[in-house]
Each structure stands twice: as C-alpha cells, then as structure tokens.
Amino acid sequence: MQIDVVTIFPEYLAPLRAALLGKAIDRGLISVGVHDLRDWTQDVHKAVDDSPYGGGPGMVMKADIWGPALDDVCTDETRLIVPTPAGRPFTQALAHEYASESHLVFACGRYEGIDQRVVDDARRRVRVDEVSIGDYVLVGGEVAVLAIVEAVARLLPGVLGNPKSHAEDSFQDGLLEGPSYTRPLVWRDLAVPDVLRSGNHRLIDRWRRDQSLARTFERRPDLLESLPEDAFDKHDRAL
Ligand code: 6GU
Fold first, then answer.
1. How crowded is residue 6: how many other Cβ atoms within 10 Å of its Cβ?
2. Do residues 4 and 33 lie in contact, with contact meaning Cβ atoms separated by under 8 Å?
3. Atom 6 in ligand 1: residue holding the nearest Cα
4. What is the ipTM of this complex?
5. Which residues line ligand 1 (CB under 6 A)?
6. Under 8 Å CB-to-CB from 165, ≥6 apart: which residues?
7. Smallest Cα–Cα separation from 209: which of 162, 154, 172?
8. 108, 141 in Cβ contact below 8 A?
9. Which stretches of 5-161 are DSSP H helices?
10. Would the pTM of this model clear 0.80, i.e. be above it?
C-alpha cells in the first residue's frame, strides 16, 4: 500500500516511520511519502492561507495551492482522505475499507480548514472522504492521520505478528474488549479472577463474553443499541 500525506508540518508525521509502522515500511508492506504543501507555493512568502470570504476569525487554506498539490500526488486509484472535525466518524469498519485500498492520500488542513472547492473539485476525479476521529477539536489533521494510518496498517497482512490478534479486537464483534491479566497471580493484594485459572475454556469464553457485555453496557451503551438482535445469544439475554 502506498500512503502519501500533504501537510505544512512534515516533521509532525515523523512517528509514521517509528515502531510498528517503521517496521512495515522496512519490510516493504507499506510505502510512505510526506510532502510539504509549501513546495506548491509560487510567492516569496510561501503563503498557504488567506482570510475567509464572509468574514470571521482564522484563516482558510487556499484552493490554488492545494489543487496543484493534489493533482500531483493523486492518481486514478487514490482514495483521498481529508481529516476534519466536520467529517464523518472514522470507525473500525472504515479502517477495514481503507486497508483494502492500494493508495491513500491524506490532505492535512490547519487553521479553519481548507477551501471547500478543493474537496468538491477532487471528487470529480477521485473518491474523497472527509473524516473525523472523534468529537473534539485538534489544531490540524496531522495527529488524526497518525491515528488513522496506525489503525489501517495493523490490518494489513504481515504487519502484526499474530493474525489472530485481530479476532478479539474491540469492535470486531461490536463490543468492547474485556480485561486481561498476566503473572503474578496476586499483585498488591489484587488477585486474578479464579475462572481464568480453571482450565475450563467454555467457562472462560462465557466469562469473557459477560465482561465485554458489562463493560460495553457501562461505557458505550450506544454500541449495544446499534447491534443486530442476532448478535446476542440466549446466555447474553439472561444478563
Ligand atoms: Cl480528523 N481533524 C481535526 N483538526 N480535528 C479533529 C479531527 C480531525 N477529528 C477530531 N477532531
């Protein structure tokens, strides 16, 4: 998979080359290009933004800089992703979709955003998603790109050591993951739940399922609402 990021803060994307992602790059599983938007400016000041039509605070990033930048970086295959708090929610389902693409391009806005015509024009040639990583406001799209790329890259074949790690991910079955424990058996007077040492794997699976359901009910009741009726078994219903 090829990933390209256009930003005015290329150094902010350095973590893309660290740890898990760095290893995936070294092994040729993903290839990452980070591009400085200012390379597409023409004026001596390298201005990328201007004041908004209609007035108001802040600055808007200019269409006549972003347009040529995206023309150069995008191809027919590209899925263009524009991180913005005004976007649709980035979810695990969308991470799986992106993991099946051959080319992702991220356009990082700063200030009050990018002139809307950049997205409207790009849509005439490529698939474009405006996405948000949560209901809070970041200063720019760069940190959102780090989150999205990490969520996508770990789904690619060969990036994680153990492919079974995916099967029990939070959200894989629409529920939050329950708690995990390792040695020592007792730590600061807190013991590991007995059931996990019982060796009875039917009982252990049932206990883990109950923990997931209880945690989801407590922390994310909205997730339970959106599950299909057949997502629950007869033991779940007893809860
Ligand atoms: Cl994707 N971008 C920015 N700037 N802020 C955000 C966001 C994205 N998602 C949540 N807040």
1. 26
2. yes
3. 85
4. 0.92
5. 83-85, 87, 131-134, 136-138, 140-141, 144
6. none
7. 172
8. yes
9. 19-26, 63-73, 92-99, 116-122, 142-153
10. yes
> Sheet harboring 127-132: ordered strands across?
31-36, 2-7, 103-107, 79-89, 127-132
Please list, in sequence order, all residues whose beta carbon lies within 8 angstroms of the beta carbon of residue 29, skipping any fewer than 6 positions away. Answer: 1, 153, 156, 157, 158, 159
Q: How far, in Å, from the CA of 230 to the mean position of ligand 1?
A: 34
User: Cα of 216 to ligand 1 centre, how many Å?
Assistant: 25
Per-residue pLDDT of the chain (239 residues; tens, 9 = 90+): 999 999 999 999 999 999 899 999 999 999 999 999 999 999 999 999 999 999 999 999 999 999 999 999 999 999 999 999 999 999 999 999 999 999 999 999 987 899 999 999 999 999 999 999 999 999 999 999 999 999 999 999 999 887 776 767 788 789 999 999 999 999 999 999 999 999 999 999 999 999 999 999 999 999 999 998 888 988 897 77
Q: What are the DSSP calls for 79-117, one per residue?
A: EEEEEEEEEEEP-HHHHHHHHT-SEEEEE---TT-B-HH
Which active-site residues does the annotation give?
85, 112, 154, 169
Provide the token pair at 44.
């001596």
Tokens of 132: 């948000």
Q: Closest by alpha carbon to 107, among 117, 97, 99?
A: 117
Instruction: Give the integer Cα–Cα distance in Å for 106 and 82.
Output: 6
